[in-house]
Amino acid sequence: MPANVTQKLITAHLIEGETRPGNEIALRIDQTLTQDATGTLVMLELDAMGLDRARTEISVQYVDHNLLQEDHKNPDDHLFLESACRRFGLWFSRPGNGVSHPLHQERFGVPGKTLAGSDSHTPAAGALGMLALGAGGLEVALAIAGRPLYLEMPEVWGIELRGELPHGVSAKDVILELLRRHDVDGGRGRILEYHGPGVATLSAMDRHVIANMGTELGATSSVFPSDETVRSFLRRQGREDDWLELAADDGAGYDLDETIDLSTLEPLIALPSSPGNVRPVSEVVGEPIYQAYIGSSANPGFRDFAVAARIVEGKTVAPTVSFDVNPTTRGILSALVADGSLASLLASGARLPQVGCNGCIGMGQAPASGRSSLRTVPRNFPGRSGTQDDRVCLVSPETAAASALTGEVTDPRGLSWDEAIEEPELAPMPGLFEEPLEPDRARAVELVEGPNIVPLPTLEPPSDTLSLPILLSVGDDLSTDEILPAGSRVLPFRSNIPEIARFAFADVDPSYHDRALEAREAGGHAIVAGDNYGQGSSREHAALAPRFLGLRLVLAVAFARIHRQNLINFGVVPLRFLDPADGRSLGAGDRLVVEGLRERLRRGEAPRVRCGDREIAVEHSLSPRQIDVLLAGGLIASARSALAERRPS
User: Fold this and answer.
1) pTM here?
2) Is the dihedral of CA 292, 298, 300, 302 positive or negative?
């Protein structure tokens, strides 16, 4: 039968399972990506498993999130990560090289390969015709150890692109259009595959923008074909030999179909505080702004900065505006210097930090209290910028630059600039990546553990009967940023679970930590949630920190894919309401009694859940493998045993 690109990628890497939507499958992983906000935990997990050496084709550890060096914690962790890469046989990208996703596309991305990353925006690599999947750090650690990645077989959503983008409209507006149509959960359980004549009008980095933010739709991944545009991109990186043509067969079908006529799109803006709160820019023109921010993994390409430079060339940004420009890789920064774009940006009043994620993850560049910030970042969850009452809006580089000049939301179609931007060849700078050591040398490496590196906590399996107070009842679309915030205040403790746990749900209920510790002594606690619980970042700290504090059960209307698996990986039971109205009837202070947890799960049944005299109807949709993991108390112990069995004597 004719196959689409997603089906070809999955079939070529399928180890277990049948490719029916909803069925659990296991995929062979060729490459892994970790970044420093999640990678320290991955390296601790590899050490806990007793891994001898990475068993992937390529595994790369990037340092791009935690670049601020306010004290010893971040630089100590950088040394720990470098030593772990030497010990376990990973590539190491030093601080200042750039953001992981565009760097991986430049340096390591290969069409036809699979990539698992401990960052939810890993699907950006789908721009090159890869199957790239965000996952929790523990799953990525297992992939590094040569184990398959398990997931539910998604539906394949075919999105046909027609036409060509008009003046003032760019790739960011394409993905914002999908978010306008379908909101933040419209892609849940689906892989988005782009096809049609409009694809050829988009550069490889335009495709990166769209694939990156498919995550904000809740999608499992996003996939583009590998065509002559991809070949040209790889040629400019000096890697044309890595190119492989990959396209859907004639007559290939999709589980769902949609069409976007690029020529009809207009500049769009996601208003506070959700990527799905999308409106036309024309409807909010004139809204005063404090900040215009360009960069991040969501708009990381040379063109994204060069077009902003063309718009502001010879002009000065409004005196009330902080114009923050964040080049994403050393190569792109060098190219912006070489063609004069950086000079134009600086002359206009742009502020320039070091190359990295920076304000996107709340590491500096926070906006003023209550003022609007127009950003080309992928997310605008409440407080993610570092300012608690922030008003972050998601826009294209064109809209951000045009608005920086006027000091208010401005439709870029009213401005003119030279649109002939030629993509440069980027210097590879190979010396800035540390290659894996030879195995004999690697085994002699000692991990460099500073005072903030703390061993992983021991987690016990759940008992058959649980009696749990509900400590929190939260609504729909609660993000992992709200479960465990990012930013310079919190992320330096990413390798110290007892300390980072102090921030769990801190912006939802500041009393949670102390109440959870008290409940932990009596057997733990539960959380009740609405739809799409745990959307956003893949950071497994959002599961592990509450588990450390005694979280044993989350009962929700529905879960975001990665966070649900992270809960399972650390022994937290994720159950769903059969009737969402039951969720609205439960609140903090109620007590849930779970009976027959182990026995009923072993039989494939849902446990009994009662609140007082009332029984709550629940379901779990756990696979037999997930049940085994859950009842063992998590993945690490079983992974350690499996690795020991496979290790040569």
Assistant:
1) 0.92
2) negative
Please name the residue that has the structure tokens 């404090």.
Answer: 290
pLDDT in tens, 20-42: 999 999 999 999 999 998 889 89
What sections of 359-457 are H helices per DSSP?
397-406, 439-443
Burial environment of residue 460 by CB neighbours within 10 A (0 to 12, 13 to 18, 19 or more):
exposed
Whether residue 498 contacts residue 552, with contact meaning beta carbons closer than 8 Å, is answered with no
In this prediction, residue 452 carries a pLDDT of: 86
Q: Could you please report the per-residue DSSP string of 191-219?
A: EEEEESGGGGGS-HHHHHHHHHHGGGGTB
CA distance linking residue 145 with residue 167, whole number of Å: 48
Q: Report pLDDT digits (tens) over 341-363.
A: 999 999 999 999 988 888 788 77
Which amino acid, 605? E
Rounded to a whole number of angstroms, the CA Rg of the chain reads 24
Cα separation, 35 vs 587, whole angstroms: 37
Is the bond into 273 cis (omega within 30 degrees of 0)?
yes
Query: Distance between CA 67 and CA 36 in Å, rounded?
Result: 9
Written as one letter, the residue type at 494 is: R
Closest of 236, 401, 211 to residue 312, by C-alpha: 401
Q: How far is CA 39 from CA 33, 34, 251, in A?
A: 9, 5, 42
Q: What is the pLDDT of residue 276?
A: 95
The predicted model gives 462-479 an average pLDDT of 94
Contact 124, 105 (CB under 8 A): yes
End-to-end CA distance of the chain: 46
Measure the CA–CA gap between 24 and 339, rounded to whole angstroms: 49
- C-alpha 552: how far from its chain's center? 25
Please provide residue 497's backbone torsions phi and psi, each rounded to the nearest 5 degrees: -60, -45
Residue 648 confidence (pLDDT) above 50: no
208-234 per-residue burial string, b: 16 or more CB within 10 A, e: under 16: bbbbbbbbbbbbbbbbbbbbebbbebb
What stretch of H or E contains 165?
none
CB burial of residue 318 (10 Å; 0-12, 13-18, 19+): middle
C-beta of residue 221 within 8 angstroms of C-beta of residue 123: yes
Find, among 277, 271, 335, the residue nearest to 301 by Cα. Answer: 335
Alpha carbons within 13 angstroms on the beta-carbon side of residue 625 total: 16
pLDDT, tens only, 96-121: 999 999 999 999 999 999 999 999 99
DSSP codes, 453-485 = --PPPP-PPPPS-EEEEEEEE--TT-BHHHHS-
In 201-321, beta strands by DSSP E: 221-223, 256-261, 268-270, 278-280, 291-295
Altogether, the residues listed in the chain come to a count of 649
CA distance 282 to 263: 17
Residue 358 gets which letter from DSSP? G
Contact 622, 628 (CB under 8 A): no
The CA distances from residue 531 to 155, 250, 260, 581, 641, in Å, are: 20, 38, 28, 12, 36
Q: Which of 49, 71, 63 is nearest to 452 (CA)?
A: 71
